[in-house]
Structures are given as structure tokens and as C-alpha cells.
Design goal:
Layout lengths: L2 E8 L12 E10 L11 E4 L6 H7 L5 E5 L3 E5 L6 E3 L7 E2 L2 E5 L5 E9 L15 E8 L1
Length: 141
Amino acid sequence: MHVSVLLLLSLTTVATARTRASWAWSSLGCFVDRDVPNRLLGSVIMTDAYEQTVERCLARCSAYNYALVENGRECFCGSTINNGTSAAMSECNFKCPGDSTEVCGGVWRGEIYEKGPSAWCVGAPGPIFTSEEKHFQVQEL
């Protein structure tokens, strides 16, 4: 006997379903930076004197594990932290030029952000599906 079953499954991810893990940034605090060759995050730097924000820096550093905002306008990216010495958060006190409600480090002081997986959304466990159809064919011979 030959039985053939075609199952068409169409699921859409909703707010209560478990979704893919995304990468989230979290602050490690304020740190003392030093000049080359002892920079906290190496030499990958981008400056933005007029529109720097924490979010812009984090977006620019998306390919790295760490981001640092310093001196109000500087953004450093790196895969490792080079011997950082912590400083009081009050020493990271320069307002970001692109958003004065945010703080973008200080003089030789930078706030380091670390990228890591965020928590799963609340919901039922199980496989992850997107808004695409999945086709399964089961055959019993």
C-alpha cells in the first residue's frame, strides 16, 4: 500500500511566539582610555562632530563585539578590550552632539558597549517560522 500525504503549513510569527535571537548592546560602564598603542578598543575610529549618538556608533560597530563613545564625537570599534581601567560614570559626561539627552564619553573617558544575544521573546517554545510557507511531504511505502 502506498500512502502519500502533502501537508501545507503556513505560519506567521506573532508577538507571542518565540522569535529569532537578535543582537543587543549593553553598557559595561565608563573606562579610562589611553593613546595609541594602548587604546581600549584598538584603532578603528570614526568621528562625527555634529551628529554623533550612541545609536550611530553602535550601528557603525555592528561587525564588532565592542563599541566605545568618547570625547563627545568619537566612536571606536573592536573585537577585544585592551586592559581597561574603570572610571566613575560621572566622568563620562559629554553630551552627544546628535542627541543632547545622551552621553558620549568624556576626555580620555569612554563608555564601552558590548554586543551579545538578547533574550528570547516570551512565548511558546518550538520551531521558528517566518511569514513564508513551509511544505512537507510525507510518504509511507
